[in-house]
Amino acid sequence: MQKGDIVRWEFEAWTLGPKPEDNELIETTSESLAKERNLFKEGAVWGPAPLIVGAGRLVKGLEGSVLAAEAGKEIEVTIPPSDAYGDRDPKKVEIHSLGEVLRLPQYRKGEDEPAPGKRIVLGNKAGTIMTIRGGRVRIDFNHDLAGKTLKYKYTLKTKAETPMEKVQAVMEMHYGRPGDFHVHVHDQHAEITVMEQCKYDPQWMLTKLQVVSDLREYAGMTKIWLIEEYIKPAEKTEAPAVPAPATEAAAESNVPQGAAEKKEEPNKAE
């Protein structure tokens, strides 16, 4: 593989324990394996996933392996902590006041409460709550996989060759499922109509900057249009109510019996 290639790969990632039965699956593109290991998520996209080779988005030990890999060949690589997420650093375990944690947006309304095991972002750092005791919260700001040896088993399946394939892979990689975006590519120009939920997702504002950068650098696009469509719903018009016509029979039914005969009799002078 060459740096900058856009490929689709199938993989499974494990953390290694002291014994094989202690190994834990942490991520996979296989739906059946995810179900077997209780990692299945309804609505997730399964099957070969897009990847930009050599873009620095994989851990060091895996990035080097993928660069040297051949398409179609299954590869297994074991990665020590030094080439993955590093060793755990005791200095990254910090004590904060419970009041400080309760001021975070997710707890401010009182609909949720901090508890051990929950992930939070405090001071622009992501961490995991370890303990809560006496108004003090112990938070581990190490990466979840720090100190872990990883094992990856993967296969590079296909390589994006055409501009359309590259643009679609980049969009899928960053946001959405295949087909959620309407893409038109002509020469080095890409016109992309974004999916409905992007319009109301604050995260999209940040994501689209990375999308544009990748489309320029790895898909070779020189002009990019990201289109948000807002179509006014058709107004509903109600047909005017048409009164039911009165029938002659109905009209006659309201005339008292004998009234018609009396109406026809002429007045008699004495």
How does the SSE layout of this entry go?
Elements: E1 6-15, E2 24-28, H1 31-36, E3 49-52, H2 60-67, E4 74-79, E5 93-97, H3 98-102, H4 105-108, E6 119-122, E7 125-133, E8 136-140, E9 150-159, H5 163-174, E10 182-186, E11 189-193, H6 202-217, E12 223-227, H7 248-253, H8 259-264
Parallel strand pairs: 11-12
Antiparallel strand pairs: 1-2, 1-3, 1-9, 4-9, 5-8, 6-7, 7-8, 10-11
Keywords for this entry:
Thrombin, subunit H, 270 residues, 3 domains, 27% strand, Alpha-Beta Plaits, 4-stranded antiparallel beta sheet, alpha+beta, Chitinase A, domain 3, 5-stranded antiparallel beta sheet
Which percent range fits the helix content? 10-25%
Roughly how many Å apart are the termini?
Answer: 125 Å
Task: Count the beta strands.
Answer: 12
Give the class from helix and strand content and strand pairing. alpha+beta
Instruction: Name the poorly predicted regions.
Output: none
What's the CATH architecture name of the largest domain?
Roll
Largest sheet: 5 strands, antiparallel
Determine the number of helices (DSSP H or I, runs of at least 4 residues).
Answer: 8
Output the CATH topology of the largest domain: Chitinase A, domain 3
Rg estimate, integer Å: 34 Å
Basic shape: globular
Average pLDDT number: 89
H-E order: EEHEHEEHHEEEEHEEHEHH
Work out the count of structural domains: 3
CATH domain class of the largest domain: Alpha Beta
